[in-house]
Design goal:
elongated, 399 residues, 5 helices, 24 strands, 6-stranded antiparallel beta sheet, alpha+beta, 2 domains, Jelly Rolls
Length: 399
């Protein structure tokens, strides 16, 4: 009898232990600590686990799968980070690359993923062998899919207040998206060897220069138009110039069908003479003082097409030295091209600032000589786009 009672007790204990084990396993799979999480239409597989505690140079991996036919958006975040001197580089199978110091932060607030697509990620940590660090990686679906041009640009780029290099120095690294006031408010501009500011529009390739203070987006053609020309004949104001006529003709031929997407913009034509009667105020501002400005100190020309200013070129990473490692340089551009900014007047000739084929700012060539034309337009603020901005996946307007 005692033996039967003992067997019964052992049997009950085994059943209870098994139930607790199964219950624990089931509970583990449905908590946020699970290595595979389904969030709406996306599945996140934390291949190295959500939580990490590491030392030295290490890597972790995760993947995101869109189980729907439609494009979705998600965020990537680092939480509960403990680290002192650790950096990381995030890279993906669809060419997203982000690097920063390791801290609790949103890596990217809005990443797009196509329908039925899987994107694989690797985070590479860099630290000395004795440095211990820890944290949690979290990925989640974005329910409010704000995909206007400005929303996507701000979501896909970290915004800084200052670049790595000083204005007037060549910027050869990707310095990201920086903040500076313009005539219309707070603007955001790309500087250096930016890789994710590509835009495809009207069958042409463009480079994104800046988000204007009113929310429109300024883009410059990634090349020259076929025509070359003099800047001026007798009147060197942009409004009455030969180059404005050529730009308008080109716009009517190639962009008029897309006019609903292109904003009227007040382009800055800075050609005010300084007190010496030779140099323009822009010459002193750019060449002597190296303080480029988005606030216009000259005439504002309301137009749907224009040119870059020399200030925009310098803020993009140009200087009076050659630079083949910033986004305005294109090896297929074989001519110098005009800007809308004046440098000087000498012996009755007007000298506008130009950009050479090697990417340098130049002010030594008269505007009555034949040079290249590189158009600039501004995209209205409320268009929606997709893409990641890389050369293989440029931003494109979807509505």
């Amino acid at each position: 009898m005692r033996f039967k009672s003992l067997l019964f007790i052992i049997f009950v204990a085994i059943i209870l232990t098994s139930s607790v084990g199964v219950g624990y396993l089931f509970y583990h799979k449905i908590t946020d600590d699970s290595d595979i999480v389904v969030d709406g239409e996306i599945t996140i597989n934390y291949l190295s686990g959500k939580t990490f505690k590491l030392s030295g140079n290490q890597k972790i991996a995760f993947s995101v799968t869109n189980n729907d036919n439609e494009q979705k958006y998600y965020y990537i975040q680092l939480k509960d980070v403990y680290a002192e001197d650790v950096s990381y580089e995030l890279s993906s199978s669809d060419n997203l690359e982000i690097s920063d110091n390791l801290k609790s932060d949103i890596i990217s607030n809005q990443v797009s993923i196509n329908g039925n697509e899987t994107v694989n990620y690797t985070i590479t940590f860099k630290a000395n062998d004795k440095e211990t660090y820890s944290g949690t990686i979290q990925v989640g679906l974005k329910n409010n899919e704000n995909d206007t041009f400005i929303d996507v640009l701000l979501a896909n780029n970290k915004v800084g207040d200052a670049g790595i290099t000083l204005n007037g120095e060549v910027a050869t690294l990707d310095e990201g998206l920086l903040k500076k006031d313009d005539d219309l408010g707070v603007a955001y501009y790309f500087r250096g060897n930016t890789l994710n500011n590509n835009f495809s529009f009207a069958g042409l390739n463009w480079k994104i220069v800046k988000i204007n203070g009113d929310g429109s987006v300024k883009v410059v053609l990634d090349g020259l138009i076929e025509e070359i020309g003099k800047y001026y004949d007798t009147d060197y104001s942009f409004s009455n110039s030969l180059i404005k006529q050529r730009l308008d003709n080109w716009y009517n031929s190639y962009l008029s069908l897309y006019a609903d997407y292109i904003a009227y913009y007040k382009y800055c034509n800075d050609y005010i003479l300084d007190s010496d009667g030779i140099n323009m105020v822009g010459y002193n501002r750019i060449i002597k003082d190296k303080i480029p400005n988005y606030v216009c100190l000259g005439d504002l020309v309301n137009s749907k097409v224009g040119l870059l200013t020399v200030d925009e070129v310098m803020l993009a990473g140009g200087s009076n030295k050659d630079n083949k490692s910033y986004y305005l340089y294109n090896e297929n551009i074989k001519l110098s091209y005009y800007t809308m900014s004046g440098a000087s007047i000498n012996n009755g000739l007007y000298y506008p600032f130009m950009v050479t084929s090697n990417g340098a700012i130049d002010y030594s060539v008269s505007g009555n000589l034949l040079r290249g034309i590189r158009p600039v337009i501004n995209i209205i603020r409320n268009v929606k786009v997709n893409g990641t901005g890389t050369s293989s996946d440029p931003y494109k307007i979807i509505s």
